């Protein structure tokens, strides 16, 4: 694995991990009222498109980071729907 791929994986890990505390807080508090549903959907679409791009380019860091971020965002959307 080359240095650029390692750098991309590290960057993707950090930006994905940054989203994790919000998922945990939402889960524990059973409240997602501060999230705009429009923002969550727009963000999910953007992350999904980055995932498609990463797959098309066969770019491992883009694929991994956006797949994990997409899953975390889907969890928040699910919690927002559940805790209305």
TrEMBL record:
<dbReference type="InterPro" id="IPR006603">
    <property type="entry name" value="PQ-loop_rpt"/>
</dbReference>
<feature type="transmembrane region" description="Helical">
    <location>
        <begin position="36"/>
        <end position="56"/>
    </location>
</feature>
<dbReference type="GO" id="GO:0016020">
    <property type="term" value="C:membrane"/>
</dbReference>
<keyword id="KW-0812">Transmembrane</keyword>
<keyword id="KW-0472">Membrane</keyword>
<dbReference type="Pfam" id="PF04193">
    <property type="entry name" value="PQ-loop"/>
</dbReference>
<dbReference type="InterPro" id="IPR047662">
    <property type="entry name" value="SemiSWEET"/>
</dbReference>
<protein>
    <submittedName>
        <fullName>SemiSWEET transporter</fullName>
    </submittedName>
</protein>
<feature type="transmembrane region" description="Helical">
    <location>
        <begin position="62"/>
        <end position="79"/>
    </location>
</feature>
<keyword id="KW-1133">Transmembrane helix</keyword>
<feature type="transmembrane region" description="Helical">
    <location>
        <begin position="6"/>
        <end position="24"/>
    </location>
</feature>
<dbReference type="GO" id="GO:0051119">
    <property type="term" value="F:sugar transmembrane transporter activity"/>
</dbReference>
